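Usage

Read records sequentially. Each one opens with the input sequence:
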Amino acid sequence: MLYDLSKITQARTKRASSWDKSGKNHDCWHIPPGTTQLLADIKGPGMITHIWMTQSNPDQDFFRKVLLRVYWEDEPEPSILVPIGDFFCLGHSIVNSFQSLPFTASARDNNVFGGAVALNCYLSMPFNKSARIELINESEEEHIVYFYIDYEEYDKSFGDDIGRLHACFRRENPTTGWGHEIEANSPPKGIPNLSDENNYLLLDAEGEGQFIGFNLSVTNLQKRLKTPHERSWWGEGDEMFFIDGEQWPPSVHGTGSEDAFGQAYGMQRNAFIYNGSSIYENDTGGYQTSYVFYITNPVRFRKSLRASIEHGHANHLSNEQSSVAYWYQREPHKTFGILPVLQRIPLVRGFVFPEGSKTDPIPIVLDEHMKEAKELWETRYKTKLEPGRY
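and closes with the structure output:
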């Protein structure tokens, strides 16, 4: 990357931005509620090298209600369709200052819903024919945005070995857990999970490309029995990446949620260039957003990739989870949509489910191991943790 700075490249540097064409200082665009605003429509060949954005909206949930939508190569379906906060690794419509290699954020007030923040993306976004970038305002308020889209124009097209950037948003509110009352790392342990059937799905892609990372946001809904004023541990979920339609076991299998994000023994208050947390649960009373980027170790696939992660060991927890997966691939891509605006709203104001925000539950059938674990927890282990009984 730094070596490339010394390489003289035949390109024209340009920028699409919200600058005031009258020469005055009103350098923002106003997007009415319920409308779509075209930010840039660029003809190729070219590459977007940097996006900066800041905004204002009185709705504290607006980072989930305003969508970033990007089309490459005149395709009818978008390759990027993500709420703006989550695209820049800030979940729950919460803002916080953090630094990673692909994304950075600088907030005026940290760990607040819907606050003022500067957002940066440094992922390269090449294209041959066209790039179309839009914001969709699905909030009930006017959305004010300042933005830069920095890009380069080239004389020659990219070859077939260059993929296009994709990003998709998913959410389960809440995940379907078979034993949410059981605290992580507490007996009974040893429940087997030898499939990804009930895992939280991060990405289901078809084609040829490489998975470069994801962020995961968790609203921890479980309180500790022993210390009810604290939230329990939401992790112990293994990531599983099934490449090119393979059956069990997957080519990539993890050992726990914090391990998937390059941490250990829970998450810590850090934001490194490849991994860490942009929102830390101990600063927010239970809201967490963690990220990992496979910059040096992308997950390559030729036909398909199914990436998922357990929610609690063997999927026993019922917390709210949402995510963004990032990948490059050849076009065309498997189309994906996004949940309606009500089902994207974060759990704010005391972990209350806003009306219409719950997603459809994924059916789960309790097997004998799960039934035994629930019974043992209720009859043998729960009483040891209840206040006044230890």
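Summary fields computed downstream for this record:
- Helices lie at 62-65, 84-87, 257-260, 281-284, 368-385.
- The mean pLDDT is 94.
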